[in-house]
Amino acid sequence: MPNAIGVVEFISVSRGIYVTDQMLKTAQVEVVSATSICPGKYMAIIHGDVAAVEDAVRVGVNLAGEYGVDSTFIPNVDPAVFPAITGATMPQHISALGIMESFSVATMIVVADAVLKSADLQPIDLRLGNALGGKAYFTFTGDVGAVQAGIDAGIAIAKEKGFLVNAESIASPSEGLVATLL
Predict the structure, then answer these.
(1) Which of 35, 85, 126, 135 is the residue whose CA sits 20 to 30 A from 98?
(2) What is the pLDDT of residue 1?
(3) pTM of the model
């Protein structure tokens, strides 16, 4: 099971496609997602072993040049991040709801990893760029204290990187809202 994830985000679709190809040729990594996102940006998310992902992200950042927006490399990513990216999670019960929002896809993946590692939390969805004007958001659940701990951890990272939009928590979300989350 791959234990590292890397992301490179671009303002140019054509440069993003070119660089993704070079990243794949540089190291033994696999694509989680490589696609255009709003507004006319491109993201490449890869995974694999730590050294390979680190090498591929380094190549990606160097080749992105002035077309690079943001990037990240997480050596020991929480395994729950992967199903959240594909929208393949829905916890049995949602106690409290946390929502983190970022201007950057790469930053939001770092935030999601930190949130999940901060407390006993379950991911709901990690939305990356499409139909969001290039922004990203992460929804997660746990008890009220755990959700607040997750939000605090996420805010610290997103603020440090300069990409925080907002964060909210709902102590007891309505069933009608929960039905809309996926």
Answers:
(1) 35
(2) 64
(3) 0.86
